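Researcher: I've been going back and forth with a colleague about how ABC transporter permease subunit might be arranged in three dimensions. Neither of us has a model we trust, so I'd like an independent prediction. The organism is Arthrobacter yangruifuii, in case that matters for your notes. Sequence below.
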Amino acid sequence: MDTVTKAVIAAIVLILALLIGYPLIRILTQAFGADGMETLRNVFTSSANRTVLLNTVVLGILVGAVGTAIGFAFAYAQARLDFRGKKLLHLIALLPIVSPPFAVATAVITLFGRSGLVTNKMLGLDYNIYGLTGLTLVLSLSFFPVAYMNLLGMLRSLDPAMDEAASSLGANRWKIFRSVTIPMLIPGFASCFLLLFVEAIADLANPLVIGGDFTVLSSRAYIAITGEYDVASGAAYSLILLLPGLLVFLVQRYWAERRSVVSVTGKPSGHVTLLRSPLARIPLLTVVLSIAVLILAIYVTVFVGAFTAILGVNNTFTLANYKYVFSGIGSDAMFTTTILALIATPVAGVLGMVLAWLVVRKVRRGRGALDFLGMLGLAVPGTVLGIGYALAFNKPFIIGNIQLLPALAGGGAIFGGALAIVMVYVIRSMPSGQRSGIAALQQIDPAIDEASTSLGASGLRTFRSITLPLIRPALLSGLTYAFARAMTTLSPIIFITTPQTKIMTSQILSEVDSGRFGNAFAYCTILIAIVLGVIGLMNLLIRDRSAPTRLN
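Model: Here is an independent structure prediction for ABC transporter permease subunit. You can compare it with whatever you and your colleague have in mind.
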């Protein structure tokens, strides 16, 4: 291993230790202090805290089950049914990924709340959407795309020859589905359920908007820190949230390493026969299209509400919402959020690719630990990470009389806390690029790197001039996810935003809390437009222009 590569490894380890290791250590020290231990004991002895813990578990189980079921329904329809409009259905299913966390919650309140357009105006009902029901609906619709993409990939990778063999033995389509397809997808179902479970219990934005009196651990930790100014209790609640997140991450890694056990062949050798029977298609398509219509209705509500005085109360067309957003605080928040996300995106993308290159190509001893350290930014729940950053970077880091690190978050932070926000964006987005980079590098013959090294190129130059161009699609995927995640995240940054650094998602939460849904809808519409526009621009700038163009 050359000197440059060793220096790169040392730099990556130091960066990861600063971005994720130090905040987690600060949470642990606070949680295991005297006040934190008292809170941990009260979680199991106090009836109020036991209720919060039970609420969190129930919510996680419901969202995990419902979100996985919706994701499978969409994935099976996309991979196994014959119908028109598959591309449109795919785009509808991915809409929640590029929207802020409140878009769905705020629109659901407008449609199905006590004064909702559907429940009150159309059906005449006085229905309370706040609480467990609303949270389950909103979180399931927000997170099911994760299960959809995972299960769609698994369905497409299943060998159709197994279905053909079962059919040749006399099994009908229902028996093939029940005895062949479902058993092969059980690890995927379990993985998606666990992932959605953790996402649900760690989410902060939606419990604040639509949770009502239904308190969960994430909102309890938020109240402890921002309302009660009890940092130790907030750290203790965060520690409880951290444990299932890490457990699910380790279980998923275990299943990923054993994926070959449930796959008969690597490349599908048969031909997928799409279902055309009305008896099989109509029930599933009815469910899938109904959910798709609901998703469309939610985002139409967001768009129309941005141009309406008070949707459902005063439906007068107005541009006042956009005038408010584009003036003063709103324009500052848009500019700041976009700039910080644009700064963090290439950093996260390149760090993810470099880390993937080290894990696959350079590190032999300790590659598992390095990979695990890089993925912690995704494994740690956003609320936990935000509290960790507030504890770690709210004051200068001083040893003796030497200040090793200035305050990066809080009122006295340098750049108004912007640097801490960029750090959060980077560590939360980097794992996606890391995973896609590892998958891409595993498909490239190591002899290419060896040939470059034998010609005298250093490891870093080989990565820059040989490896990076070959993994361009993985880099684009990592950059796209990094920007979308940075623009729409709230849980990790709500604890470190300052009056000097205004973020769009934080401003949306303020508008929703104040009941100004029109302004919130305008913010959401602009944010979605920015995300889609920048992602399209990234595709144009990074696409492979060396590929030949086919003329029809």
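Researcher: What would you highlight for our discussion?
Model: I'd start with this: The chain has two domains: 1-30+319-544, 33-90+130-263. After that, consider the following. Residues 259-268, 545-552 have pLDDT under 50 and may be disordered.
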